[in-house]
């Protein structure tokens, strides 16, 4: 092996954990993660609780989950965000700020709708919010790729996850508690105000220290990144891994709120207690995942976290058999979200390692779309399975479909080691 080749796959020097965690960019990523998670929960758990409160069936809610399709289609317009920056706040932050303010306005429109009258206007508002949220995510993810290095990818993902989870819980808990006492319209108006306030963080965030030129043409912003992602022998196998690694965890959480409501828990209990546990343990999992990734490396982290997130789904199976059991609900929620957040850190770190920073918006959007296909594609079948097979069958299936992703990590272990050794702005898998 040549010296150049040896250097290319040599493990990166281990940074001091203290130096990684105290970096100012971690605070920036934390705030951007919060802005990313906030609208996501409004069009998922919060929206589903709203519909459930008006007597909508699980099957209909499952079908309604397809309003999230823009999250899967975001690669279609991601090249535009790589190629055409707005004339303020730099290549990434201008787009982030614009989408955040538009999301706040769209939530106000959603607040004016009435599920008892018609579901169509609600669906259209939700689709608009998802489109704007997906656009925001495209540029936030690209910003993360711009500022990441091989030594702090795990910590960056952990910081983004921490902000995402915290704001997601705030959005959900705030909406349910306010809805319980005042009504759904004031709840959504309050969410719109919080979303607008989050844009202040974007305004104050610094530009990346390392600047990357945008592609010189729209064709270059599409063709070159596609060649990097799909033009290599292992590309399709890595795409399969991106899709399968979180599929069991995605199914387990898909109907978390309707599941707990069917078990007899009240909206306030779910919003204040279940979701607080959900968020607290997910944040702890993100932090632990980021720290352990620095010590374990990508391969061992993916193996360990993947096994834990699959096995934790069996606790929901036990809760489905026990019914309204508060201690078991706490244990199931805590352990599942701790493991799932650690798995997410490893999965996103792998996606970041596969991206070239010059085309970060498009490549990250493309890979994250593959990662989200199970999450958003399972809505109809998962709702049908819950209604016809029952919740115990549902969670046994969620455990079983989580195992192939772990097996694929082991099969690709040598390639993952090489990928982990590359610097930020890595090439696509070769």
Give a written overview of the molecule.
The chain is globular, with a radius of gyration of 21 Å. It is 79% helix and 0% strand. With 430 residues, the protein is an all-alpha fold. It has one domain: MFS general substrate transporter like domains (Growth Hormone, Chain: A). The protein is built from 22 helices and no strands. It starts with a helix and ends in a 9-residue tail after the last helix. Residues 1-13 and 423-430 have low confidence and may be disordered. Helix 15 (267-296) crosses helix 18.
Blueprint of the fold:
Blueprint: H1 3-9, H2 17-21, H3 24-53, H4 58-64, H5 69-73, H6 78-83, H7 90-111, H8 120-147, H9 153-181, H10 184-204, H11 218-230, H12 235-244, H13 247-254, H14 256-262, H15 267-296, H16 298-311, H17 314-322, H18 326-354, H19 360-377, H20 379-400, H21 403-411, H22 413-421
Count the strands?
0
In total, the number of domains comes to: 1
CATH topology: Growth Hormone, Chain: A
By CATH, the superfamily comes out as MFS general substrate transporter like domains
The percent of residues in helical segments reads over 70%
